[in-house]
């Protein structure tokens, strides 16, 4: 039957969908803010236009404007120009399910039938003649996975099926079909129609060709007036398809309307297409379709069967789009953070090595005022791997000065600082690899009982492992003696070590020099092996920069005992910790960028004047001491001491020899370290001087410093 | 009428333009484009109503050109994103009958579309280009796809002009991320451009010409070629 004598089956190029990213953004926020779990269908608007490109079809497009505007949030809604000639509005309906199962379970045939029924009803009632866009009504089902920012969706463009199908009597470019005058006149008329805001978005129309070759375009509702000139009548529609031998999808329901309402069996149609914004009679097609559908088509109650689910690359599959790149806040935060740093590199510091910064693993010993602030500064510089070690809990007095905590962290006895800090860092920047370790640092002068010994030794080993697995260590605890073991372990492992310590209104920030021994060749990471290759340091300690303990002539002891409360707590001016923390981090960044790394000589502001080898980040000092009361700051250099209780070769080699036994003895015996390093001797010989040594809070004795 | 009234004095100029100069230039540019570049997608001014109390935008809109299309013949290199819907959707459920009136046709062309927006940056006081690319079904193009679309000689121009850094940032009006060329070097580039332009006999240059020159460089990143007619200095034809 399809092989009717008149010609082949008329085949229509299916409508293609295109969904703008903005549509999914709007749908997501609509779902989150308004719809909740409501699954009722939503009216949406699709847009299409005649084909405008000889090689590319137009699509039915969904934009953010396709969805109803959100309540109360009309801030930046684009002004919708009411009759955008390239946006003919088409009504559609959206079924957005709450689950993927719901999406798959939708009865697609039934939904399609429902929409086809509406189209049929609009044809029968005459509504489609008044508002012809109703003929192109479409259907969209979707599941918005807002956790993964992916959207599963499937379009249907319901078409009433003529059975048997229409056949084609003739189809050729409009310019071949019409006389030159007619083509010219039709172009003018179409351009007028497309220019007028009243008609530009009316996609179906009637064209009459007068005997004087004049073309006139009329609305479908003017049918009665035109029906007497049937032989000169064209049924025109905006054709989104570009193909030279096939009309586009919108013609299908139009034929249905013409056949069922106006009882025509031979229909001459115009596929209206444009090029460069104007009517193109070479691309536009005129054809004649022959219809021989059964009588049921004439009955209103009978709804013809329908087709129209869009294929996905020729298969009956839904489509899926993933927008995590533009919607996942974590990815957005990462790219925004990177941008800030990249900008710095582009504009001011071309040699800034962001990869080193993001790869450097930092261990922060102490998660108090200094630890919180150092962690924040590290993140600001693009450091992504931060471990915080602390055994304290967040107290009510902490959040005001310790910038990672809030009142919530203090409730019910307080969370562990290490854990709370980890959580807080991740809240600030979800891509950070933060870890909190709740652990105490064994300290000299705080003897341990036999029962506790195993715990202490376990802590020592853990600390040793932590230091080994990090690239840079910050000493940010509030007592001097708690810095002893980490200093020793860092000197032993040759790790970058930075100390920040606070007095009431003065501070010290310093980097420790390299350890007394060259690291073993099988250093764990590339960072330190790079540095050791360039080592300029001689092992005798003459050039080595000092550590925190090098300038002292007493071993660390219990500095908390016998002190009043205001002395015990770190009572400092609140501005001090942020300043010192920021300097400590800047010092690390400078060190990481220095070609000699941990072996870099100390530089000071005054010696810098005529330096030719100045680094892009500026000088790399050894120590920075500052005073708020004077609003002053100075850079100092101090070399390592041969009788240092933490980093001299005697101590480190003793540790290497005896390991944990040595640590235990140092912790338990007050004078062991001083005896070992010869400090006891030194003190005796120096007893004529009246010295008033104290803990790190007093940083005034500067005699030993070379300026 | 606005266009040539807005004149920049470049003798002591830092390469920036004011919001009002931008608005005037944008309108003049769009108008000229419509007259001289018939057939290309048109630039239109998208008006965004100002929100009360939030005066983050000194300019209440931006210039927009949409659906610039780039044809690629190598359709068959899979972009591997779809088929995500593969997960066992049972389609054998007596789907619609095969309908002989449906044309089965696979296009061998892959089309990439680009949208370009020119937004005024109040902090840098220069125009900024925001753009995005997408496939015909709306799937966004990633940075790699976009770089592949840039013709070799354009890529070279962009590489050599060191101030054109492609990044992704939130569109200031649409509030979701678009690609952009960071504006931090624009004013310096524009200042130098107009300093060495010998064709400028007077120290004055139309703001609209600023936009044209600037866009002829940055537009290349999204496949926009500013036609020569736009830089032709003869006055535009006055069409009825």
Automatic annotation (TrEMBL), chain A:
Residues the record marks as active site: 569 (glycyl thioester intermediate)
Limits of the THIF-type NAD/FAD binding fold domain: 345-595
Domain (Ubiquitin-like modifier-activating enzyme Atg7 N-terminal) ranges: 10-327
The keyword Transport is annotated on this UniProt entry: yes
GO biological process entries: autophagosome assembly; autophagy of mitochondrion; cellular response to nitrogen starvation; piecemeal microautophagy of the nucleus; protein modification by small protein conjugation; protein transport
One cellular-component annotation, GO: phagophore assembly site
Molecular function per GO: Atg12 activating enzyme activity; Atg8 activating enzyme activity
CDD domains: Apg7 (cd01486)
Keywords: Autophagy, Cytoplasm, Protein transport, Transport, Ubl conjugation pathway
Record SUPFAM superfamilies: Activating enzymes of the ubiquitin-like proteins
Localization terms from the record: Cytoplasm; Preautophagosomal structure
Family that this chain belongs to: Belongs to the ATG7 family.
Function field: E1-like activating enzyme involved in the 2 ubiquitin-like systems required for autophagy.
Subunit structure as annotated in this protein's UniProt entry: Homodimer.
Name recorded for this polypeptide: Ubiquitin-like modifier-activating enzyme ATG7
From TrEMBL, chain B:
Residues making up the signal peptide according to the UniProt record: none
Keyword Ribonucleoprotein: no
GO molecular function, one term: Atg12 conjugating enzyme activity
Key word Iron present: no
Record-level GO cellular component terms: cytosol
Keywords: Autophagy, Transferase, Ubl conjugation pathway
InterPro entries documented for this protein: Atg3/Atg10
One GO-annotated biological process of the protein: autophagosome assembly
Family of the protein in this entry: Belongs to the ATG10 family.
Protein's recorded name: Ubiquitin-like-conjugating enzyme ATG10
């Amino acid at each position: 039957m399809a092989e009717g004598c008149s010609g082949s089956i008329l085949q229509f190029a299916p409508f293609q969908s295109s969904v703008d990213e903005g549509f999914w953004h709007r749908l997501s926020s609509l779902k989150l803010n308004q719809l909740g779990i409501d699954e009722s269908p939503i009216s949406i608007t699709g847009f299409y236009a005649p084909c405008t490109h000889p090689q590319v079809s137009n699509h039915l497009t969904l934009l953010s404007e396709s969805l109803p505007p959100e309540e109360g949030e009309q801030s930046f809604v684009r002004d919708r120009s009411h009759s955008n000639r390239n946006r003919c509005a088409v009504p559609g309906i959206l079924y957005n399910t709450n689950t993927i199962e719901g999406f798959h379970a939708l009865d697609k045939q039934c939904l399609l039938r429902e929409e086809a029924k509406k189209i049929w009803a609009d044809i029968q009632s005459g509504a489609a003649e008044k508002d012809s866009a109703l003929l192109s009504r479409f259907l969209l089902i979707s599941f918005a996975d807002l956790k993964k920012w992916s959207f599963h969706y499937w379009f249907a463009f319901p078409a009433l099926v003529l059975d048997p199908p229409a056949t084609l009597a003739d189809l050729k470019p409009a310019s071949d079909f019409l006389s030159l005058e007619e083509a010219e006149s039709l172009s003018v008329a179409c351009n007028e129609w497309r220019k007028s805001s009243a008609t530009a978005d009316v996609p179906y129309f009637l064209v009459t060709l007068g005997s004087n070759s004049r073309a006139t375009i009329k609305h479908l509702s003017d049918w009665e007036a035109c029906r007497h000139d049937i032989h000169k009548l064209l049924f025109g529609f905006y054709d989104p398809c570009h193909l030279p031998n096939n009309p586009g999808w919108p013609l299908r329901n139009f034929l249905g309307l013409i056949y069922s309402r106006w009882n025509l069996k031979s229909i001459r149609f115009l596929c209206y297409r444009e090029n460069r914004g104007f009517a193109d009679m070479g691309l536009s097609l005129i054809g004649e379709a022959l219809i021989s559908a059964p009588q049921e088509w004439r009955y209103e109650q009978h709804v013809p069967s329908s087709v129209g689910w869009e294929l996905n690359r020729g298969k009956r599959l839904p489509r899926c789009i993933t927008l995590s790149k533009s919607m996942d806040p974590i990815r957005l935060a990462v790219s925004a953070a990177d941008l800030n740093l990249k900008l710095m590199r582009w504009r001011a510091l071309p040699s800034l090595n962001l990869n080193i910064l993001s790869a450097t693993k930092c261990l922060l010993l102490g998660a108090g005022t200094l630890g919180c602030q150092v962690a924040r500064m590290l993140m600001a510089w693009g450091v992504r791997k931060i471990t915080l070690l602390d055994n304290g809990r967040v107290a009510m007095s902490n959040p005001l000065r310790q910038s990672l905590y809030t009142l919530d962290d203090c409730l019910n006895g307080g969370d562990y600082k290490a854990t709370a800090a980890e959580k807080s860092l991740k809240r600030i920047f979800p891509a950070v690899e933060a870890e909190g370790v709740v652990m105490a640092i064994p300290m000299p002068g705080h003897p341990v009982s036999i029962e506790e010994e195993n715990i202490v030794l376990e802590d020592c080993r853990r600390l040793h492992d932590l230091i080994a697995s990090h690239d840079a260590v910050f000493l940010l605890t509030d007592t001097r003696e708690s810095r002893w073991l980490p200093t020793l372990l860092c000197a032993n492992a040759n790790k970058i070590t930075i100390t920040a310590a606070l007095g009431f209104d003065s501070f010290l920030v310093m980097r420790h020099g390299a350890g007394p021994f060259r690291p073993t060749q099988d250093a764990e990471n590339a960072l330190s092996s790079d540095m050791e290759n360039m080592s300029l340091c001689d092992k005798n300690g003459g050039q080595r920069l000092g550590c925190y303990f090098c300038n002292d002539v007493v071993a660390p002891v219990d500095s908390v005992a016998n002190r009043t409360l205001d002395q015990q707590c770190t009572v400092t001016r609140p501005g001090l910790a942020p300043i010192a923390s920021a300097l400590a981090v800047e010092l690390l960044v400078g060190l990481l960028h220095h070609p000699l790394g941990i072996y870099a000589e100390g530089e000071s502001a005054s010696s810098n004047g005529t330096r030719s080898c100045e680094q892009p980040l500026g000088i790399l000092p050894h120590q920075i001491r500052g005073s708020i009361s004077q609003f002053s700051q100075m850079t100092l250099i101090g070399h390592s001491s041969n009788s240092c209780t933490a980093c001299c070769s005697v101590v480190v080699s003793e540790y290497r020899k005896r390991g944990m036994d040595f640590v235990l003895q140092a912790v338990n015996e007050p004078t062991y370290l001083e005896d070992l390093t010869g400090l006891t001797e030194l003190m005796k010989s120096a007893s004529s001087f009246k010295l008033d040594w104290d803990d790190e809070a007093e940083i005034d004795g500067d005699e030993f410093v070379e300026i | 009428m606005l266009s040539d009234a807005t004149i920049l004095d470049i003798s002591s100029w830092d390469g920036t333009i004011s919001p009002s100069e931008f608005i005037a230039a944008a309108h003049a540019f769009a108008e000229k484009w419509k007259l001289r570049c018939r057939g290309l997608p048109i630039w239109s001014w998208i008006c965004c109503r100002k929100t009360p109390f939030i005066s983050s935008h000194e300019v209440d809109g931006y210039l927009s050109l949409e659906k610039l299309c780039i044809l690629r013949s190598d359709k068959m290199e899979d972009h591997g994103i779809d088929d995500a819907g593969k997960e066992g959707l049972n389609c054998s459920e007596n789907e619609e009958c095969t309908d002989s009136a449906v044309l089965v046709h696979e296009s061998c062309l892959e089309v990439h579309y680009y949208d370009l927006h020119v937004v005024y940056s109040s902090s840098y006081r220069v125009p900024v280009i925001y753009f995005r690319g997408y496939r015909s079904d709306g799937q966004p193009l990633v940075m790699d796809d976009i770089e592949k679309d840039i013709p070799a000689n354009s890529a070279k121009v962009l590489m050599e002009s060191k101030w054109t850094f492609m990044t992704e940032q939130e569109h200031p009006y649409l509030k979701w991320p678009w690609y952009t060329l960071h504006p931090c070097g624009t004013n310096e580039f524009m200042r130098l451009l107009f300093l060495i332009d010998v064709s400028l006999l007077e120290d004055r240059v139309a703001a609209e010409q600023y936009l044209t020159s600037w866009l002829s460089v940055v537009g290349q990143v999204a496949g926009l070629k500013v036609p020569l007619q736009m830089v032709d200095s003869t006055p535009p034809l006055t069409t009825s």
